[in-house]
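Regression test case RT-17, inverse folding.

Input:
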């Protein structure tokens, strides 16, 4: 635990059509739809569907009234992550620490409840228009007050938990937000990559990972770096109009089975550059998985002194080139695929060129 943050409780997306988004995440990624909140449950201004797989909890929310500020949010950013919520033991202490260190309050600590009990919540603002909600569950027995159980099972694809969540910020803003997370939430600097680590002949970025002491919460923060052409981070900033959440990395313990299931469901992934597998095994060494299956499925592999990892990135999950998912399996490695940065960037540059945004 890092100064009161226990874990990521849920991630909330604002989407243009929550019913359709729930169907997509159920059919494409295998999430279960487990709960619902809307006009029928006493919330006339919006609808929300709760999706779950393993320990991953997502809320998909759509505003129903034209004057709702979330409609402006959607117009500005499109479908994307609005809130990364934390479970905490002492909400007053966490909120006071954060706001005392300079975090802007979105909502003060207050109680919520229904027939399942009571809990307390509060929220602060972080980069862009993203929030961090704090949740102190107390004796509350359900997910969150106001939700009703409405279950529709998906066919799980082996996704287990959120490994990390990546934010993109504007040029020369990364260090500011790294310091902000350390001072407000106690998430310390874990690892950094500069524009020599993450670059191609055309584009580059810088990245620093902040994390809780137990590494349960890991937030890489990216910023664009100077290059001959527009980096993927700047493309994101342009499409989102501000800083925001770039991707969620979802963990599996059998990436071959997970990626096969996702591909069968129609999930689109970034292609691996030509020649990638000609040299990767010399760099990575031996792995437990079938190398031919890794190649067939187009999975990236990297290693560090503690082991190796396997990872693959989806294409953007909406028409704007903003939010996407990463699927990751760790075999000891606690890094973020540094050896794959160049290959990943080259593939993203190909996609940018097709969009006319390179």
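Golden output:
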């Amino acid at each position: 635990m890092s100064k009161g943050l226990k874990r990521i409780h849920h991630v909330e997306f604002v989407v243009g059509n929550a019913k359709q988004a729930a169907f997509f995440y159920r059919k494409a990624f295998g999430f279960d739809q487990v709960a619902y909140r809307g006009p029928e449950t006493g919330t006339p201004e919006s609808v929300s569907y709760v999706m779950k797989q393993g320990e991953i909890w997502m809320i998909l929310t759509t505003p129903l009234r034209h004057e709702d500020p979330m409609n402006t949010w959607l117009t500005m950013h499109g479908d994307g992550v609005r809130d990364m919520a934390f479970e905490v033991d002492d909400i007053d202490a966490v909120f006071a620490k954060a706001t005392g260190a300079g975090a802007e309050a979105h909502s003060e600590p207050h109680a919520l409840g229904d027939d399942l009990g009571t809990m307390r919540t509060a929220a602060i603002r972080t980069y862009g228009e993203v929030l961090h909600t704090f949740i102190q569950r107390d004796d509350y027995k359900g997910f969150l007050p106001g939700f009703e159980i409405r279950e529709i099972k998906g066919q799980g694809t082996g996704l287990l938990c959120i490994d990390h969540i990546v934010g993109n910020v504007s040029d020369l803003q990364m260090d500011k937000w790294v310091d902000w997370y350390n001072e407000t939430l106690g998430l310390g600097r874990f690892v950094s990559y500069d524009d020599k680590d993450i670059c191609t002949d055309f584009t580059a970025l810088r990245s620093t990972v902040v994390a809780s002491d137990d590494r349960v919460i890991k937030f890489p923060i990216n910023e664009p770096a100077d290059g001959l052409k527009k980096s993927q981070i700047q493309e994101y900033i342009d499409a989102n109009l501000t800083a925001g959440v770039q991707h969620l990395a979802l963990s599996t313990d059998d990436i071959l089975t997970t990626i096969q299931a996702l591909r069968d469901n129609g999930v689109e992934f970034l292609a691996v550059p030509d020649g990638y597998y000609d040299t990767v095994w010399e760099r990575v060494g031996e792995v437990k998985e079938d190398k031919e299956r890794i190649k067939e499925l187009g999975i990236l592999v990297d290693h560090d002194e503690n082991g190796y990892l396997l990872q693959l990135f989806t294409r953007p999950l909406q028409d704007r080139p903003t939010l996407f998912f990463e699927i990751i399996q760790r075999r000891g490695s606690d890094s973020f695929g540094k050896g794959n940065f160049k290959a990943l960037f080259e593939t993203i540059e190909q996609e940018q060129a097709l969009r006319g945004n390179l």
